[in-house]
Structure formats: C-alpha cells, structure tokens
Amino acid sequence: MRRVFPLYALSGFISLGYQVAWFRIFIDWFGSTNLTFALVVCNFIGGLGCGALLSQRITRLLAGRTGIGDKLRLYGLIELLVGVAALLTVAVECLPADLWGSFPYHLDDGIWVQTIRYQLAQGAIAAISLFLPCLFMGVTFPLLCDIFRSIPTNGRLPSVLYAWNTIGACSGVLACQFILIPEIGHQPTFWLMAGLNILLGLYFLASGGAPASDEVADTAWATFPSAGVPPRSGSALIACAALSGLLAGALEGDMFKRIDFIVVLSPGAIMSFISFWAVLGIFLASIIVRHVERIQLAHIKVAYGLAALYYFALWRFSDELTYLVGNPPDVRGVHHFPVSLSQLFVYTGIYVLPAYLLVSLLLPYVCNRLQGMGKHLGLAYGLNTVGFCLGLIAFTLVAPRLNIFYSLKLFLIFMALVAIALACIAEFRPIRAWQIAALMSFVAIACIATPRRFDRNFFTPLMWPNAVAAQGMRSNAAHTTYFLELPNNNMKLFFGRLSMSGTSPRSQQYMRLMAHFPLLAHPYPEKALLICFGVGNTASAIAAHESITRIDAVDLNENVFKMAPAFAEHHGFVHLDPRLRMINDDGRNFLALSNETYDLITSEPPPPMAGGVYRLYSREYYEQVLAHLSPDGLMSQWLPIGQLPNDAIELVTRTFVAVFPYSLLFEGAGQHLILLGSRSPVRFEQLSERFYKSDRVRTDLLRIDVSTSSALVARVIRNDAELRSRLGPGRVLSDQHNDLEHLFYDPGEVQRIPY
Q1: What is the chain's mean pLDDT, rounded?
Q2: Number of CB atoms found within 10 A of residue 509's CB
C-alpha cells in the first residue's frame, strides 16, 4: 500500500502539469479570450466531477469488459486511459487553423464577432481533447479509496491520499512554471506529462496488488473517533462536500480577479502562484485532518468563520499590504508593485494560503467520515468537484460580466453566507429541502441587493478614478472598462485599475507616428491591420491616408469598440469610417485564420510583461505578421522602454530584429519607442517625397509637431546594422518559452541601453 502514496503524488504532479500546459495550448489554438478560459476550466474541472460521480459505473464497465479483477490493475488501466486520451490534444493540433474559413465572423451591432458555428467547434474540440482525459482522472480518487476500504486503519485514508496527491500537484505547478516550460516549452511539457501518465498506468496494470477482499471491515466506524453513534444518513456530509467545493471554487476564482485588480499590470506568473498556494493549502488541510484526531465538524465551522473574517480584513488592507511587501508610493504618488518575483510570491501567499487552508479542511474530513462508514466516495467527491466548477465559473465568468466592483463585493457576502449555512448543518441529521431553498434564496437576494455601480473606494486617493467620475462603464468577464475626462482635454481609457490608452499630446504623438512613418515609407498603401484599437488614435492616423481602402482593427475587448464614440472628437469619428472593420478577437487568432495580406500591420498591445501579452511580442507572432505583409509591407511595434526592465527591452528588440530582414528603431514620444520591420530597407527619399503629397496627412502630422520630412526622419535612433551590432546573438522570445513572465520593472534600475 505504501508504494501507492508516492505514485499517486506523481499522478497529482501530472494532472497539474496537464492543466498548466492546456491553458497555453488552447491559447495557441483559439487566442487569449474569455471563451478559451471557460473551455479549459469547465472541461477540466467538469470532467473531474463527472468522472467521480460515474466512478463506480466506469470501473464496473471496465472490469466487465476487460475481465480485470485486481482493482489496482484497474486503476492502472484508468491512468493509462488518461494518458492515451490526453494524446488527443496532439492529434487536434494537426487540424488546420482555417478549418472554419478565413473569416469566421458575423456583424453584430457594428462589430465583427465570432460565429456560433466557430464557437461550437471550439467547444467540441475542448470536449474531445480535454474533457475525456479529465473524466478518467476523476475516477481515480474514489477508486483508490474504495480499494483500501477493508484495511482496519482506513478511517483517515482519504485525507492521506488527498495529501499525497496535492503535494504532487504543488510540485507540478512549480516544476512546469519555473523549470519545464522555460526550458523545453509547453508542448514538450505536455508530451512529457502524457508519457509519464502512460508509464504510471502500465506499472499498475502490470503489477496490481490490491487487497484480496474489498469487504468493509466491521470495525471501520469504530476506528474513526466520533461524537456519538454513526449517522443514519450521510446526506449532511454529502451536502458539506458540495458546499466545500462551491466555496473553494468561488474563492479561487475571486482570488484570480481580486489580485489581478490590485496588481495593476498583472504578470503571467500570478495564476501559477495562486494555484500553487491554493493546492498547498489543500495539502496542509489534509495533513491537519489526518493527524489531529479530535477534529470535529464544529471546529471546521469555526475555521470557515475565521476564513471569512481574514479574507475581508485582507481585502480592506490590500493596498497597504503591497506597501509592506514591496515599497510605498514615491514622492509623485506612483506605486510600482511588484518589482520582483519574490514580492509577488509572498503577496499571493499571504492572500491565498490562510483562507484556502481553512476552507479546505472540510472535504478531507467528510471523506474520512464517509470512508469510515463504508460508503463509496464517488458521490461526495464528484459533487465537491462539480460545486468547485460552478463556484469558479460564477466568480470568473458570470459575476464579473456585470462589473468587477459588483463581483468582488458579492463574493464577500457569498463567503459569509456559506459560513453561516455550514454552521446550520448538523452532522447527524439529514439535510432538508428547506435548508437548500433558504441558502439559495439568500444568495439570490445578495445577487440582487449588491450594488452594481462604479465604486471609487476600490482605488487609493492617489489614483485618478478615486477623484474623477468614471463614465461609460461596461464589463465583460475579463475587464471592466470605463473612461475618465481629465484636465487639459485629456481622456483616459481604463481596464479596472490599469490605464490602457489616452488622448494626451504625448499619447497622440507616438500612436499617430506608428501609422504615419510606415505608411509614408510605403509606395502606395491600401490595406492596414491594427492590432489593439485603444482610443482610436492610430486608426485615425491610418484613415488620413487617402490611398487606404480598408482598415481592419482587431481588439480582444469588444467594449473598446463600443466606447469609440466617446473619443470621437479626438480620433476624428474614425469609428464611422466605412473603410474600418472592427473585429472582436485575439490578434494572433485573427492572423491564424486570415489569408489577407496588408501593407501595414501595426501592433500596440499592453506592455509585454502583462499576463498573456507576451504572445504579441514573440518570434512566432512576428513570423505570422511577416507572412501577412505585402511585398512592400511594413510592421510597426510599440516599445515602451519606460515600463520595461533592461532584459525585457533586449529580449523584445532582439526577437523583432531576428524575424524581420530589415528593422529600425525610432522615437515616438519620450520613452515610447517604435520598432519598424520590413522585407527591404526603408527608402527615406520616398518618405520625403510622399510627405508633401497629402494635405490631410500633413495636417495630422502638424498636430503632433512634425512639420517637415526631415523632422520625421530625424526621429530614427538606430538603423538595421546598428541594432544587430548592439544586440548581438542571444535568446529570443517564443510562444513556448515566456521568458518575460519572470521579469519585473523596477524604477530604481539604471537603464543600461542608452536609447
């Protein structure tokens, strides 16, 4: 039996390795969209839950079809099926990206959005490649607990198994995030997990060794301390399992949103750190339940109350905690947090571990109780996992669609209601229908009564949204979007706490130059692709060129397009230009689907260290762009050196230069630099000739203080030869290796690249 524990830890390692890799693989397939996140979460957690609920049926079916009587060999067969089913992901990768056509969009209120057919196809692919292996994963825990029910000291076996599995999962998160993916990439990591899974299954399939009898020992209940006689019904414990999963899933989902809101420019490592601390909390909770023999449901009720109080207090002092872990704001009121990976690790640990440990005590306790009663754990574990899925979806996809302020406030109320509901459950009394109805009624009242308006108290006094009224607030599951009207005719577009774009003179200058410089260097530009629309400054500059016949603007946040009328006076009503197509999708996904070529592709995503954004600065991205450029086409890429550490500046620039045959770097405005890439050298004499041919273009350039062609050419900082000489050979940014994920901007760092 002892050999099962470390091998089940390996199973946990593999499972979390799959999850980390699946997130990245699905983003490669369908882009970094809300639908992608929902597909991975729902199929992964939902598959586990369905597998647990169907565990008895699946094991009986497999035993009947294969004739395997040894249940450990049957466990090996199921692990083997997990690995084989996971390989369907590799098969799906062979499907052509444009299988559903080169433009699978339909027009909805002026915005081109993905067709239902395309979205259903994504769901079907997720179900085939992700749900099926997770279904088999969900069978394993109830099956192993069932195998060893006959051992007299089995009363606490579920908590022991759960602890081993979760410590393996903790190791899997760290190993994948910091060793495997950085070194070999997420696809080879996935293949490695599948290979280990198959080897694990083959080992148990060959060795077996389950106890000869699966009868429940007569002393099973006696081996587990209780407060009285065995309960006549396990319904209270089953309800506790479901309630535990519901709160745990909601808590993890809220943590993703809450920490992402506080840490303004959220690095990609946040999700992995939250997962690590959450799984570590589950492990420690399982150890506590295993070793503290006198623990009772009453103690866990108190733990739930403490978790709610701790989480509320932590939220109240979230910003102060960033000052404690990092540094306080500087004299200008600007606060940079985090400036290192260790600061982020400690901050997420303080936020996640205590609360998650306290709420995770309930499931291992319930499983131990049910095991001691001789009951199969499939129902309890399955309902727990399904509850987790529902809670996670509720607070990552549903509540945030109203807005982030509503979602974060609603969760605190929900957490208190769950703690109260648990306090009302008596372990030895069956659950009544009115109790379930009462909880659902209170949750419904909370959903209706929680305020949905913009809340300036979510911002520190040093932040603009605390002092200036927000306007035009809209939300989807990913972002709450709004704008502010600041002094000096400056408007700013915000996602949560993050200022995404604006209309200040400096913003106008570099955004318009991203279009004008390459378009003037092209002999006769006709089609342009704008990745990330912002407030429309760059689109407006593109539209000023009369030769342009079409502008495709792609943005992941549809609310950016819906807010375009608010900025109309600044972008010249470009949103009404018949040449403009506003397309709601991930920029990479659009390029993978499209067969169009463009004379200009301009890219102005958030800074590259923000979570998920590195894919718009990678080698594969620039290769996609180059493939979609016409023979004389050019690409312009925003490079905000004032927001990047030295290593990130070098990495992004080297990656760009490595792909484009010819590159140059020019000044947009201050520390907002612009990279320009093409197949042939930029012809400055042509730029000078075309500079004076269009009155509209000259007028637009005059508004950003560029009056002559020589003034425009003078902005060039480094030509192709100088860039290559300065950068030299070295590592480049790849989809498979997100080296930016572990880099942080520190304003105290001395810039060693004298641009």
Answers
A1: 89
A2: 21
- Bridge-based pairing of strands 662-669 and 716-718 is antiparallel
| Alpha-carbon torsion (572, 573, 574, 577), positive or negative | negative
Task: For residue 42, give the H/E element and its range.
Answer: helix 34-53
Q: Which residues of 299-321 are buried (b: 16+ CB within 10 A; e: fewer)?
A: ebbebbbebbeebeebbeebbeb
The SS3 of residue 426 is: coil
CA 368 to chain centre: 34
Tell me if residue 612 falls in helix, strand or coil.
coil
Contact at 8 Å (CB) between 10 and 82? Answer: no
> Which of 15-19, 29-33, 222-226, 580-584: highest mean pLDDT?
580-584
611, 271 contact by CB (below 8 A): yes
| φ, ψ dihedrals at 720, nearest 5° | -60, -50
Paired tokens of 754: 């004298």
- pTM of the predicted model as reported, rounded to 2 decimal places: 0.91
Query: What domains are there in the chain, each with its CATH number?
Result: 4-225+233-449 (1.20.1250.20), 456-472+481-500 (no CATH), 503-742 (3.40.50.150)
Best CA proximity match to 747, nearest among 463, 267, 329: 329
Which residues on neighbouring strands pair with residue 112, listed in sequence order? 107, 583
Which residue do the tokens 């903790």 mark? 170
Amino acid 218: pLDDT: 37
In the numeric block, the tokens 């009056």 are attached to: 707
Q: Which two tokens stand for residue 96?
A: 């052509």
Mention every residue, 6+ apart, whose C-beta is less than 8 A from residue 90.
190, 191, 194
User: How many angstroms separate the first and last alpha carbons of the chain?
Assistant: 63
- Which tokens in the block code for residue 543? 């539209």
Asked if residue 607 has pLDDT above 80, the reply is no
- 367-410 tens-digit pLDDT: 999 888 888 889 999 999 999 999 999 999 999 999 999 999 99
Name the token pair of 33: 């969209």
Using the predicted structure, report yes or no on whether residue 153 has a pLDDT greater than 90: no
Q: Where are the alpha helices (DSSP H) in 263-332?
A: 269-291, 297-316, 318-325
In angstroms, how far is CA 484 from the centroid of its own chain? 27
Residue 84 amino acid letter: V
Mean of pLDDT values over 89-94: 83
Residue with tokens 């030299």: 728
Task: State whether residue 437 is helix, strand or coil.
Answer: helix
Residue 606: name the closest of 496, 709, 529, 723 by CA: 496
Give the tokens for residue 398.
């549903």
Tracing tokens 């839950």 back to the chain, one arrives at 49
- Given this model, what pLDDT does residue 35 score? 66
- How far is it, in rounded angstroms, from Cα 333 to Cα 135? 51
State the Cα angle at 272 between 271 and 276, rounded to 5°: 120
User: Mean pLDDT over residues 63-71, rounded?
Assistant: 92
Res 216: pLDDT: 39
CA proximity to 137, closest of 391, 396, 381: 381
Assigned token pair, 649:
């500046």
Distances (CA, A) of 503 to 53, 512, 582, 628, 705: 55, 11, 20, 30, 15
Instruction: Put the strands of the sheet holding 527-531 in their side by side order.
Output: 105-108, 111-114, 580-584, 550-555, 527-531, 598-603, 629-640, 672-678, 662-669, 716-718
CA distance 289 to 300: 10
Return the structure tokens found at 370: 């049910």
> pLDDT tens-digit profile of 479-524?
999 999 998 889 999 999 999 999 999 999 999 999 999 999 999 9
Q: Would you place residue 569 in the very low, low, confident or very high pLDDT band (cuts 50, 70, 90)?
A: very high
